[in-house]
Amino acid sequence: MSGEVHTYEGGCHCGAVRFRLRVREHRALACNCSICAKKGMINFIAPPADFTLLRGEEALTTYRFNTGVAQHRFCRTCGVHPFSRPRSHPDQFDVNLRCLDGDVLERFTVEPFDGQHWEQNVETIR
């Protein structure tokens, strides 16, 4: 799958939030930080050119904690967290691959990321 650009769509559980994601490399992170572990996130960092919010901006609300930099976006109706603006890459999108339509997660190589020790490991995120 390398070299090709694949396009996926996804969203929250109730369908109020829908997005499109273009993927050039099928690599993701399973972070063990407090929020990712509780949400069950599989993180895929995407530049703004590869992420399109199709609908639902008005359905989203934002949770911030600690430094307040990361914007954890979630649907105010169903509570699902389809994406965020991460502290590590605040100008990009961190898409929750579990929110993609269909059975596509198996296409990705998911690597562990030690987010419990975020400060020491953040530079390893590409």
Short description:
The chain has 126 residues and is mainly beta.
Describe the structure.
The protein is mostly beta strands. It has a single domain, classed as Metal Binding Protein, Guanine Nucleotide Exchange Factor, Chain A (Beta Complex). Helix content is 8%, strand content 37%. The protein has two helices and ten strands. The strands form three sheets. Strands 4-9-8-7-6 form a five-stranded antiparallel sheet, with no helix packed on it. Strands 1-2-5 form a three-stranded antiparallel sheet, with no helix packed on it. It has a two-stranded parallel sheet with strand order 3-10. β1 (6-11) and β2 form a beta hairpin. The longest helix has 6 residues, at 34-39. The protein is globular. The two termini are 18 Å apart. The mean pLDDT is 91.
Count of separate DSSP helical elements? 2
Q: Which CATH architecture would you pick?
A: Beta Complex
User: What share of the residues lie within helices?
Assistant: under 10%
- CATH names the topology as Metal Binding Protein, Guanine Nucleotide Exchange Factor, Chain A
How large a portion of the residues is in β-strands, by DSSP E? 35-45%
The CATH class turns out to be: Mainly Beta
Give the CA-based shape. globular
The number of domains: 1
- Give a short account of the largest sheet: 5 strands, antiparallel
Strand order of the largest sheet: 4-9-8-7-6
* Helix/strand structural class: mainly beta
